[in-house]
Amino acid sequence: ISESYQFSADPHVVVVEGLPLTIRCPVTGTPPPNITWHKDGGQLNNTNDLISIKEVGRNDSGNYTCTATNHVGKVSKSFLVDVHTAPMLKEDTPQQLSVLSKTELSLDCSVTGHPSPSILWLNGTHPLSDSGVISLTNKNQTMTIGSINLEHSGHYSCIASNIAGAVEKSFDVDVLEPPSFMGDEAAGNRPSTMQKVMLHRKV
């Protein structure tokens, strides 16, 4: 007696990096079929009806195919394994920045991860967004203030997150100003003592 094969498994497998993974090839047939596995076209050293990985890594993503054969026939089934990886900052050291007023401030939050992380910028606890003063570019990985002043001093942070996790990077910004005489601007709008004398003489 011979029977056709029957598969029953989800063809799209999503798993977070570091967790265990089992892919089962639940095939039946008479006589019992021989099973071979391939990953992205390359044959694996596995003849069991399942693949088991204790801790999945990003390199385990790919297309896995199990093939069952006996003298009656041959069938194959593929499984797409998608490993989600937590965000990872390219530079995670907290930064202390001293910036001269009226210059540009640019903070970088370059990050990798799958799926692509979303990035939130904060000034203290206040969320930042694109505005006339603040610009968020490069998929929100770069925050720029075109012309800073003393009010922009303080603590900034970026939080990158996806389904696999989240990371945070901190920046402490100190805005510097060169020395100037107090009241110079106001004094410039008033006539000096000498100007008052000259005006009085003309009258």
From TrEMBL:
SUPFAM superfamilies: Immunoglobulin (SSF48726). Residues 1-82, 87-174 form the Ig-like domain. GO terms for cellular component: axon; neuronal cell body; plasma membrane. Gene3D superfamilies: Immunoglobulins. Keywords: Disulfide bond, Immunoglobulin domain, Signal. One of its GO terms (biological process) is synapse organization. The keyword Disulfide bond applies. GO terms for molecular function: axon guidance receptor activity. PROSITE patterns: IG_LIKE. This is Ig-like domain-containing protein. It comes from Homalodisca liturata.
